[in-house]
Amino acid sequence: MAESRPNLDSYETFIAVAEDCPANTGEVPKARDGVRTAAQVHYEMVCLSPYEFTQPQVLFAAELAKKGLDPAQHPEGGATWKAFYAKGQPCLRASALGKRYGWGVHFNEEAKVAGYAVDSAEYKRLASDPAVAHTRAMRNQRA
Q1: Residue at 1 is within a domain
Q2: Would you say residue 105 lies in a domain?
């Protein structure tokens, strides 16, 4: 269903942590009041399952978790997916992974994502790789 696929794919791009990210190492996001947060879903899909998912899949999974919806009942391309992407959605530059928890995000040539801790060798390699487009996670505070 090409028409239901949002235009959020990035290729060979690295999102470095925000300039004002407080983390010096990759931190694992914690539940808030026993509820899974978007940051936890992003961490699980991007950092624990590297290059398995695309950005639209990660964002949609976080939305389902936020609403307490079963992913088996709300498949990619279905009515819930279409309704979610009918309006603009923030990309992973807005994720708490890069804003708060110290994780950079890399998109490979297939637009699949992986996360790397800011203090890791792979983060440093990607951050300095001229063959990869570079951007930063959004700042937490206005400059």
Answers
A1: no
A2: yes
CA torsion through residues 42, 58, 98, 47, sign: positive
> Is residue 62 a part of any domain in this protein?
yes
Burial of 79 (0-12, 13-18, 19+ CB in 10 A): exposed
Domain holding 126, by residue range, is 9-136
Whole-angstrom distance, CA of residue 25 vs CA of residue 75: 34
Q: What is the number of structural domains in the chain? A: 1
Residue 4 covered by a domain: no
CB 117 within 8 A of CB 25: yes
Residue for token pair 């992986």 = 114
* Predicted local confidence at residue 2, as pLDDT: 42
Buried b vs exposed e over 26-55: b needs ≥16 C-beta within 10 Å? Answer: bbebeeeeeebbbbbbbbbbbbeebeebbb
98 contacts 15 by C-beta, under 8 angstroms: yes
pTM (two decimals)? 0.90
Q: From the first residue on, what is the mean pLDDT of each consecutive set of 10 residues in the chain (143 residues)?
A: 58 97 96 88 98 96 93 94 91 96 97 98 98 95 69
